[in-house]
Write a sequence for this structure.
């Protein structure tokens, strides 16, 4: 492949922004969305009128809190004039929406694309917890399972917690991975969250706390599951030529991984010890001369703790089957370890901002703006942001300009 | 829940394509679509064979024997349903291990379930306003007890 064909390299992250983030803010989700978007535009040193592209995941999505706004809501509220716009859920994970923006910039359809992901699951669930938004959670007759849930809901398996738990169990079976190893993802996240003023949970967590937490779906306990929250994250993806004189040092997009070669299914995928990230992760390394050993920090999706272990292997940061031993004790993935992971606290402790939080943190670290949670290694040059699990995964390799 | 009472379930929407699958348990037999040209099994149901694109597909009986590929013991009350904890599993069908079902393991303690466990189909019958449904559950297979025994 010619380097000039890798058009994501013409794109960079020029601005990042977040709204207020909280467990339950009871705020208008569109307000949070716009707060995040304006913060990203401001961070880039741009004006709203400079934005000529718009991308979001998953688009408008009903009352579950899964999406705070659709593309048209932001398009109209900011009176944007767009050369390119897109939204949708059937893409390479949550960051698929950002990857598409990079391609649109590379193809010349837009110069500055605003990307956003907005959630209000904390408020939407209210006091009922997950059952408050679960189809059939109220036990009313008449709800029917259709689409891909036709094959899981009738067996009282309505949540990705159960589906991903079965991937984890298969990994445990094949490689001897343990709950104590899995725990390190949660403990590491909590340690980092204590240094992130925007994190939801920052009180210390011990191995005993983890192992005595109530079980959700084995091998997962409560602390293996991310925390629903309210908040929005946004980025400006700019053409590198248009970003040189902006406010922040641009963070370049070196390569993206979008592949999905196995069946796009939670239970029919060919190897349930891994998931769609196997294909996306391998794909990324076909589009760059950089190597996994060049990565200075990795921000890896943790909707459930096991997904982070899975991404470590999918991205070839550790050999297949060895993610458990790699994280054992937690020192290798700590901020001063050989591969700092989820330095903001991940979704497990910083809140389920759903994919976009990992790219936000990768940019923060490459800019050296992490403050108390900045990784120990000086001048990090290469970071990975990876998002999604199950049958929907995508990843981005980022470098300092 | 009283003995023999079926738990609350969210029943599948019975579509033209998948209705045969959910009604298959009427005679106690599990069926999957099979291509009558190339012999491939497919699931979930499709309008054509994903291997040779033939539209000559027929619901075809299988033995009902399967193996636990992976599982999770669910403790979370997502919705009214079976007594907690219950076992959700993905099983490989004997006729073609690449054909899998997400299901529940019933008829044993969740603690007795293991990867590699031989199981056989048992149907849970439900009556809905628009027809009957037989959900394929799996229970330990006494004819193959001890096969694929879990390691020490």
């Amino acid at each position: 492949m010619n380097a000039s064909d890798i058009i994501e390299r013409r794109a960079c992250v020029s601005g990042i922004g977040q709204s207020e983030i909280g467990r339950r803010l009871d705020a208008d989700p569109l307000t949070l969305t716009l707060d995040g978007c304006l913060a990203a535009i401001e961070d880039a040193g741009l004006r709203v009128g400079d934005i000529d592209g718009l991308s979001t995941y998953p688009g408008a999505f009903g009352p579950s809190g899964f999406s705070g706004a659709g593309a048209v809501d932001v398009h109209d509220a900011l009176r944007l004039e767009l050369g390119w716009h897109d939204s949708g859920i059937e893409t390479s994970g949550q960051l698929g929406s950002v990857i598409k923006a990079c391609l649109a910039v590379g193809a010349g359809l837009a110069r500055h694309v605003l990307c956003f992901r907005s959630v209000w699951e904390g408020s939407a669930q209210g006091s009922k917890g997950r059952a408050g938004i679960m189809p059939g959670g109220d036990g009313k007759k008449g709800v029917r399972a259709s689409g891909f849930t036709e094959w899981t809901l009738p067996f009282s398996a309505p949540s990705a917690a159960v589906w991903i738990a079965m991937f984890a169990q298969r990994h445990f079976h094949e490689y001897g991975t343990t709950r104590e190893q899995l725990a390190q993802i949660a403990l590491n996240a909590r340690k980092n969250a204590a240094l992130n003023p925007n994190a939801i949970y920052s009180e210390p967590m011990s191995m005993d706390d983890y192992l005595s937490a109530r079980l959700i779906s084995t091998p997962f306990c409560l602390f293996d599951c991310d925390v629903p929250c309210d908040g929005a994250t946004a980025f400006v993806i700019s053409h590198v030529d248009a970003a040189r004189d902006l406010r922040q040092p641009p963070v370049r997009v070196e390569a993206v991984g979008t592949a999905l070669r196995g069946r796009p299914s939670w239970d029919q995928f060919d190897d349930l010890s891994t998931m769609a990230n196997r294909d996306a992760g391998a794909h990324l390394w076909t589009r760059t001369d950089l190597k996994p050993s060049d990565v200075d920090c990795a921000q890896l999706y943790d909707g459930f703790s096991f997904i982070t272990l899975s991404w470590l292997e999918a991205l070839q940061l550790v050999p297949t089957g060895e993610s458990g031993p790699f994280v054992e004790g937690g020192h290798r993935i700590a901020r001063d370890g050989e591969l700092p992971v989820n330095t903001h606290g991940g979704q497990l402790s910083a809140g389920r901002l759903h994919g976009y939080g990992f790219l936000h943190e990768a940019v923060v670290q490459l800019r050296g703006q992490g403050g108390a949670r900045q990784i120990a290694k000086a001048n990090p040059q290469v970071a990975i942001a990876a998002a999604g699990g199950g049958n929907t995964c995508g990843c981005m390799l980022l470098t300092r300009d | 829940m009283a003995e023999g009472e079926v738990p609350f379930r969210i029943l599948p929407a019975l579509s033209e394509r998948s209705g045969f699958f959910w009604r298959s348990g009427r005679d106690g037999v599990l069926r999957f679509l099979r291509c009558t040209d190339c012999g491939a099994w497919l699931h979930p149901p499709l309008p054509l064979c994903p291997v040779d694109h033939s539209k000559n597909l027929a619901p075809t009986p299988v033995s009902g024997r399967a193996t636990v590929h992976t599982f999770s013991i669910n403790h979370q009350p997502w919705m009214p349903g079976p007594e907690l904890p219950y076992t959700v599993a993905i099983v490989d069908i004997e006729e073609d291990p690449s054909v899998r079902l997400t299901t529940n393991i019933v008829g044993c303690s969740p603690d007795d379930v293991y990867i590699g466990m031989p199981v056989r189909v048992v149907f849970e019958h439900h009556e809905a306003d628009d027809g009957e449904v037989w959900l394929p559950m799996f229970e330990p297979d006494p004819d193959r007890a001890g096969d694929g025994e879990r390691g020490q």
In short: Chain B has one helix and nine strands. Chain B has a mean pLDDT of 94. The two ends of chain B are 35 Å apart (CA to CA).
